[in-house]
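Priority: medium. Attachment 1 of 2:
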C-alpha cells in the first residue's frame, strides 16, 4: 500500500480524523464540529481549529461553505495504513458465514462465485473475482445505489474501470496479500471516487487469482478489508 505518514498530526487530530472517516461512512453527509465536540467533550471552537489544521494538511476538505468536513483520499490512505498495521480478528459470526458458504461449494469456480456473493451480502459493495481469464462481478446495484453515483460521469468512470480491471490485474499482478486502491490511486477510473480492495490467492486457475470489492471511497474500511482478506485466505484453504 502507498505510504502516507502522519508525523505532522497530533494524537487528537488523528482521533478526530478517524471519527470523521467513520462517521461519514455511516451517514454519508459532511461531519460538523458540534457533533465532534460532544464526542471529544471539548468546545466546537476547539474542534473547528483542529479541523482547520487537518484541512491545511490535506486530510479533510469542506465540500461547500457552511458544511462539515469529509475525508480526502490522503485522509483515507492514512486511516487505511493505520488499520492495516493493526491486525484484528474477524467477528466469528461473519467468519462462519464466509466459511460455511465455501466449504460445500464443490467445483473451484462455484467456490469463488459463492465467496464473491457472500462479500456482496456482507459489505454491500460490488464484489469481484478473477476466474481464469474472466472477471466475475456481482452486486452492481449495490454500488450504483450509493448516493455518490447519481451522476452519469462517475458511472462511466466505474464502467471503464470494470471493463479494464481483469487485463490490468493480469499485467500488474499485485503481489500483496491485500491491496487497497483509494480514489485517485486506482489505475483506471481515477475520478470515479471508488476504492478497490483485493486479496490475492492461489487457485487451480492461477497462482495470482484475486477476490475483492469495489465500493465508494466512503466505506467501512476496517470491516471490508478484514472480510476481503479472510475471503482470500479461506479460498486458498478450500481450493
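Attachment 2 of 2:
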Amino acid at each position: 500500500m502507498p505510504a502516507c505518514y502522519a508525523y505532522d498530526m497530533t494524537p487528537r487530530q488523528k482521533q478526530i480524523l478517524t471519527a470523521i472517516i467513520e462517521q461519514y461512512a455511516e451517514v454519508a453527509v459532511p461531519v460538523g464540529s458540534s457533533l465532534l465536540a460532544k464526542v471529544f467533550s471539548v468546545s466546537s471552537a476547539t474542534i473547528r481549529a483542529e479541523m482547520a489544521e487537518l484541512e491545511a494538511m490535506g486530510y479533510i476538505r469542506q465540500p461547500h461553505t457552511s458544511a462539515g468536513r469529509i475525508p480526502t483520499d490522503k485522509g483515507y490512505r492514512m486511516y487505511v495504513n493505520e488499520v492495516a498495521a493493526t491486525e484484528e480478528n474477524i467477528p466469528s459470526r461473519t467468519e462462519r458465514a464466509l466459511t460455511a458458504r465455501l466449504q460445500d461449494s464443490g467445483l473451484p469456480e462455484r467456490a469463488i462465485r459463492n465467496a464473491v456473493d457472500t462479500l456482496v451480502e456482507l459489505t454491500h459493495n460490488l464484489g469481484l473475482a478473477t476466474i481464469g481469464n474472466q472477471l466475475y462481478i456481482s452486486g452492481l446495484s449495490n454500488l450504483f445505489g450509493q448516493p455518490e453515483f447519481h451522476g452519469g460521469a462517475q458511472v462511466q468512470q466505474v464502467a471503464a474501470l470494470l471493463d479494464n480491471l481483469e487485463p490490468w490485474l493480469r499485467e500488474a499482478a499485485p503481489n500483496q496479500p491485500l491491496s487497497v486502491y483509494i480514489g485517485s490511486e486506482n489505475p483506471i477510473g481515477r475520478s470515479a471516487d471508488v476504492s478497490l480492495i483485493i486479496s490475492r490467492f492461489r487457485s487451480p486457475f492461477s497462482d495470482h487469482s484475486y477476490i475483492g470489492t469495489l465500493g465508494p471511497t466512503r466505506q467501512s474500511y476496517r470491516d471490508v478489508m478484514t472480510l476481503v482478506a479472510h475471503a482470500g485466505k479461506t479460498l486458498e484453504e478450500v481450493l
